[in-house]
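Data availability (excerpt). The following record was deposited with the supplementary files.
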Amino acid sequence: MKNRNNISAEQYLNELYSLSEKIGASDIHLTTGEVPYLRTEGILTPVDGAEVIKPGTCDAVAISLALNTIAPGVENPAEEVLKRLFSSGAIDGATTSPNGYRYRFNVYRENNSTAVAMRRLDDKFLSLSELGLPARLEAFCGYPDGLVIVTGPTGSGKSTTLATLIDMINRNRNGHIITIEDPVEYIHKSDKCLVHQRQIGRDATSFNAALVESLRQDPDVILVGEIREIETIRTAITAAETGHLVFATLHASDCVGAIERFISVFPEGEQSSVRHQLSLVLRGVFAQHLLPSAKEGATRVVCGELLFTTTGIANLIATGRSQQIYSALETGRNAGMQTMEYDLARLLSFGLITEQTAHSMSRNPNLRSGWTFASGREPL
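Predicted structure:
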C-alpha cells in the first residue's frame, strides 16, 4: 500500500478491506502518523511496506465510515459527523465491504487527531455448537413471550450469541422480528420471519424511543442491543408482559449479577415491585466470557453460565434472595442449568484452558471436585 494517501477515502478503505480479507485479518487499525495495522490470528502487526497515514487521509476515512450512522435527510451529514465526533469523542457504526463482509467500526479522537478501529464480523451465522455454546440455549428461541438476558463483559461475544438465536428464530418460526441496535452488526434477511433492523442515530433517536415505537409495529420478537437506562428497562418489562419475546444484553459477570444489575437501576422504593415483575417475565439468563485457549493456534473459548427461571428461582427473585440462586443453579442441571464453575471445570478437564485461567475465573478453589465428564461438551 505505497503512495495511497492521495486516493479517495472509499478507495483507500476498499484496498484495506481487500488486503485484510485476503490474509484473514480480524481487525484493522488506522492512526494518523502510523502505517495501518492488521490483527491476524490474534497478533497485531504493521502492514509491510505501507505508507504512513497522513492526517487528511485518516480524517477522510473516519468521516466516510461515520456517514453510515447519520439519518437520511440531514442537511450536511459530514458536518454532523464532525459535530458528534468532537462532542462525544467517538462514533460507533457498522459497514459492509465490496466483497460482502460486515465490519463493526469505532471512529475516535486521540492525541488531538482521529483514529479508526474496525473488526470483521462473521460472514455467516454459526450454530450454537460451532460457537461452543450450550445446546440448551435453543430453548430461549421457543418461548412465546418473556424476557431473555445475555450478559458478560465488553467483547465477550454477546452480539454474536444473540445474532445466532435471532437467526434460529428467523429460520424456524413465523413472526415479526424487530432488532434495535447501535450499530446493526449482523444483517438478518427475512426468512420465515419478517425482519426489521433499526440503528440508533440512523433510524431511531434512542433505545427507549425505538422500543416504545416497536410496540406499535406488531412485533413478536424484539432484540434490544443494550439495556441499561431505567426507562428502557421499564419498557422492556412492559413488552415482555404484553406478549412479546424480548432479548436484551447487560454488562454483568454472571447470572445473579445481571438480575441484581437490572433491579438496582430503579429507586429503592420501586425495587420490590420490579422484582415481582421480573420474576414473572424473566425466562432465562446466559452469562458468557471469552477465555484464552490453552491450545496452540487457537484464540479464545467460550465459558458460560446458564439459568432458566423455574418456579423456585422466580420466588427467590421476587423475595430478594438472589444470593440463593447460586445454590439453585448448582442443583438445576436436570432443568438444563449450569454454573460458571461447572463449565470452567469442563474446559479444564478437556485441556481447553489452563489451571491459571480456570482459577482466576472461579469462585470455587476445589474446581475439579465433584464432576466427571465424558467427552466434548456434555449435553444439557
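Summary of structural features: The chain has two domains: 9-120, 128-361.
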